[in-house]
Automatic annotation (TrEMBL):
The lineage of its organism: Bacteria, Pseudomonadati, Myxococcota, Polyangia, Polyangiales. It comes from Sorangium cellulosum (strain So ce56) (Polyangium cellulosum (strain So ce56)). It is found in: Cytoplasm. This is SAM-dependent methyltransferase. InterPro entries: PUA-like_sf, PUA_sf, RlmI-like_PUA, SAM-dep_methyl-trfase, SAM-dependent_MTases_sf. Residues 166-339 form the S-adenosylmethionine-dependent methyltransferase domain. The keyword Oxidoreductase does not apply. Keywords: Cytoplasm, Methyltransferase, S-adenosyl-L-methionine, Transferase. Belongs to the methyltransferase superfamily. RlmI family.
Amino acid sequence: MWSGHPWVFAQAIARIEGGAVAGDEVVVTDPYGSVLGRGLYTPRSAIPVRMYTREDRPIDAALFRHRIERAIAHRRELGLPARAPGHETDAFRLIHAEGDGLPGLIVDLFGDVVVVQLGTIGIKRREGVIFDALQAALSPRAIVDRTPESLAKLEGFTADAGVVRGDPALDQLRFVERGLRYTIPLALGHKTGFYLDQRTLRTRVEQLAHNRRVLDAFCFVGTFAMAAARGGASEVLAIDESATAIEVGAECARENGLLDRIKFTRDDARKALQNASRQAGYDLVICDPPKLAGTRASKDTALTAYRRLAAGACRATRPGGVLVLCSCSSAVSLDDLTRVLALGARDARMQAAVFDRHFQGGDHPVPAAFPEGLYLKSLIARIDAL
């Protein structure tokens, strides 16, 4: 709190006065009565207050408009949207919750469509103000709500899934990232529709892929696979359990003229890593699993799972090859991920030398006082036999 951390945990609250209810704006004071700022209240959460200001000023429509405009300006400073030939990008994170001073609010832009996730009941109660500000700043074709039902239930509200403003006939997202075209059905329910946070790592994979046999495990719609194929990979295998994701990925690859270099296969990625280890091994393996540690309480179990994955991925990588290992769990630190890679490599009778590290892109900013915001970590390592 004192350094600017945006959360007030339940155990830090001595008392609540004035009969605040879910979603209310509350004033936070220290034990001596000095005002620390204002936040939005979620009584059912382990984080009952998320801070919006460090002074006694209202959390009103003007604040939301200013911070949304500031977030858009920051993306423009980063060069987003990008128009350089071969690097065109019109899909990126527009508002990253605490990173843009709007805890609980995620907004992604996909071409001319805005997709939102309303992460707290306080944000839900102010959705009209938020939608108005987004409409005024961007004039999108549509605003789509992709708030997970499980999160809404936890926060005590009902999610309005689908188009909430604009074109009611919208059923897919069409956008460009790094010059590659994507068409993603709204029904494909991962995050806001796409993993925008791995854009910089996809660029690195493309650089590393030339003349390599590549395995893209947990591929979703094959973004790493397409990056590798465009980078000159000799062969690419893309694996995911979701039949829909595989079908969409194959169609995206076809649209970009890359399908002849990628084999999309529906399978359990863990089994695919085991099967690959019985073969000659791949020159480049990308292992980007879904979140394994949803909370700190599940961290130890998740680390065991990451170690097994790391071992399988190391076995699937030929000696002298490259492994990309990722974690999107905020409870798993970079040191944790590095340690499970070392242990997994040892279990596989291999050794891993990390030569590159990647995090979420600049459109996913993290306050300096908020280490929990750095959720995405990726290691790139050379794998050799002992």
